Amino acid sequence: MTIDRTTYEQALAQLTGPGSPFELSTGEVRGVAMRNFALRPRSLRELVERAAQHGDAEFLVQGEQRLTYAQFARRVWGTAAELRGQGLRHGDRIAILAYNSVDYVVTVFACASVGAIVVALNGWWTQDELDYALRDSGSRMLIVEDRLLARVRDLIGKPGTLEKVFVTGASAPPPGLLAGGELIRESDEMPRDPIDEDDPFVILYTSGTTGRPKGCITTHRGTITQVMGILLHGMVSTLLGEPSPLPTDGSRPTSLMTAPLFHVAGIHTGVSTAMSAGAKVVLSEGRFDPEQVLRLIEKERVSTWSAIPTMLHRVVQSPRLRDYDLSSLVRISFGGAPTAPETMMRARQVFHIAPSLTNGYGMTETHGIIMLAGGGDLEENPTSVGRPVAFFDVKLVDSAGREVADGELGEVLLRGPTVTPGYWNRPEATAEAIRDGWLHTGDIAFRDANGLYTLVDRIKDMIIRGGENVYCVEIENCLMEHPDIDEAAIVGVPDVELGEIVKAVVQPRPGATLGAEQVRAHVAARLAAFKVPDIVAFCDEPLPRNAAGKIVKSQLRAG
Ligand code: AMP
User: Fold this and answer.
1) Among the ranges 107-121, 238-252, 298-312, which has the highest mean pLDDT value?
2) Do the first three CATH levels of 5-39+219-458 and 462-558 match, i.e. the same topology?
3) To the nearest whole number, what is the mean pLDDT of the chain?
4) Distance of CA 458 from the midpoint of ligand 1 (Å)
5) What is the CA radius of gyration of the chain?
6) Which of 21, 166, 387, 527 is 20 to 30 Å apart from 510, CA to CA?
7) CA 159 to centroid of ligand 1, rounded, Å
């Protein structure tokens, strides 16, 4: 059942009052008064220090490698000291180009412990894009995994800011480069370098589907606050009757990480949240493989899995689902892009024990989660992204900047301590995204009477056809309900008469025979005539996606 607004707000007030571990108080963030958690750790180093109290409990697992909380903290302190010895100082940028690994996580927190800033490079980027990010960030050091070295080989030694390059992995570093493995050390002594809450932690180049990448700055404060927001949301939901995200047999929570560490779903919402909760984190290996997910759930008794929607889609379609014991799984969360209600329904059907599902709406610019929908809220409102985490001020505004009433569409504007201080070296882009203290998300949503938000589209994803607004996601969801369609995307194509027309790009299920007329008839039976695709193109391959799982629509428009 959907929870009404008053019940939700009462439960929230109960958990955030004075004296509660999640007490919310108002304080200044970069000169502006905002709500924040009174009892938060003041740096990520402090978060690691607190987490070390979990001692011999396992924290990071990948393949044969297993690290307890105590070992993790010792490695973070030791690696921090080694990096300092290499000349890394507070405020310096150090780039990492690597696949997910235990050492990657250790290194990120080691850098943060001396106040240095990690530039988490996108592992799918080309040489030119990497060159751009290294220069833009002014990185002094680079840690690169040997399997990815070829991508930056020609950049090393070129004039720029890069002074030291460390190569990790099995092979010895080529002449002139340093051995990354030597950086990982152990120590019982925590570094003491001063760290401010608003110091940058990690720079993430946003996966915007158009334009030049922007280095979005995440901070110690923003990361910690969003982690506490997620944990608080879980407690409020449980108080209101949603199934608990904890394992039913009383064992330690175990989360499976399949998202790359170079997105907020990695270090920020994934690893940092698990660390705060004393959970075990299982890192998958290599390219995404649905069967590996199933295998790891069984082997490591995974209790929660955070998926990019495409991953969830692939897992629920897997013919091997029945071959594994998935009974430990109590929750699947997903987000970063819309998840078709169809996929959620299938997830509820195909697992032996239906896990609870959570849809998370997030952005790099907010260190991750903005809103969460779960339990009865999501079951009854499958396209909703739920309610904002506690500390956000949210408003929906029309194109003139006026707040809209419940039920009406408006752009989501956000204010809160997890909004990025801005983009690295890009004051104009920052000023455009954050105006009068409000982050303009570019997302169009409405809020219902229960306080639940539903994203309807992104501003640039809206097609205006003959003066009528067409919201792509609505048609995409409709197409995904067709039994013969595996994937679908809607784009606008310029048209002399109508301004824009609607084009559908459809990947049929293998073996299906599907014609354009059938696709059009399917939509016409469900949606207004102006939403029926004017053009239907078919492709045999999965639609082009960027590393965050978003469809690269610019490629579809042209094709
Ligand atoms: P990024 O910063 O690359 O993660 O992109 C953030 C954007 O992804 C948001 O502004 C939304 O447009 C979209 N997005 C994120 N989460 C969701 C979700 N749960 N449902 C639909 N769209 C989402």
Assistant:
1) 107-121
2) no
3) 92
4) 9
5) 23
6) 527
7) 37
Of 189 and 127, the one with more pLDDT: 189
pLDDT per residue as tens digits for the range 474-507 = 789 889 989 999 999 999 888 766 777 899 999 9
Q: For residues 452 and 374, give the distance between their C-alpha atoms in angstroms, rounded to a whole number.
A: 11
Ligand 1, atom 9, lies closest to the CA of 363
End-to-end CA distance of the chain: 44
The fourth-level CATH superfamily of domain 5-39+219-458 is ANL, N-terminal domain (3.40.50.12780)
Determine whether the shortest distance from the Cβ of 303 to ligand 1 is under 6 A.
no
pLDDT tens digits, one per residue of 37-91: 999 999 999 999 999 999 999 999 999 999 999 999 999 999 999 999 999 999 9
Report whether residue 362 contacts ligand 1, using a CB cutoff of 6 Å: yes
Instruction: Tell me the CA distances in angstroms from 218 to 175, 201, 423, 437, one per residue in order.
Output: 35, 6, 9, 16
Record the tokens describing residue 189, joined without a space.
Answer: 């002594």
Ligand 1 touching residue 382 (CB < 6 A)? no
User: 5 alpha carbon to ligand 1 midpoint, in Å?
Assistant: 24
pLDDT in tens, 202-247: 999 874 444 467 899 999 999 999 999 999 999 999 999 888 888 8
The DSSP code sequence of 520-536 is: HHHHHTTS-GGGS-SEE
Give percent of the chain above pLDDT 90. Answer: 72
Residue 443 CA to ligand 1 center (angstroms) comes to 8
Q: Give residue 544 CA to ligand 1 midpoint distance, Å.
A: 17
pTM: 0.87
Strand ranges, E, within 83-131? 93-97, 117-120
pLDDT score, position 338: 76
- Options 1.10.10.10, 3.30.300.30, 3.30.230.10, 1.10.1240.10; CATH of 462-558: 3.30.300.30
Specify the CATH number for 68-213; select among 3.30.70.100, 3.20.20.80, 3.10.129.10, 3.40.50.980. Answer: 3.40.50.980
Residue 473 has pLDDT above 90, yes or no: no
Report pLDDT for 211: 47
309 C-beta closer than 6 A to ligand 1: no
For residue 361 and ligand 1, the question of a CB distance below 6 A is answered with yes
How buried is 39 (Cβ within 10 angstroms: 0-12 exposed, 13-18 middle, 19+ buried)?
A: exposed
Four-CA torsion 418, 255, 545, 105, nearest 10 degrees: 70
| Among the listed residues 181, 182, 174, 183, the one whose alpha carbon sits nearest the alpha carbon of residue 152 | 174
Q: Of the candidates 362, 208, 206, 342, which has an alpha carbon nearest to the alpha carbon of residue 273?
A: 362
Whether residue 206 has its Cβ less than 6 Å from ligand 1: yes
On the question of pLDDT at 395 being above 50, the answer is yes
The reply to whether ligand 1 has any atom less than 6 angstroms from the CB of 43 is: no
Helix (H) or strand (E) holding 453: strand 453-458
Domain boundaries, the chain: 5-39+219-458, 68-213, 462-558
Which atom from ligand 1 is nearest to the alpha carbon of 365? Answer: 2
Q: Is 59 in the pocket of ligand 1 (CB under 6 A)?
A: no
Average pLDDT over residues 511-515: 92
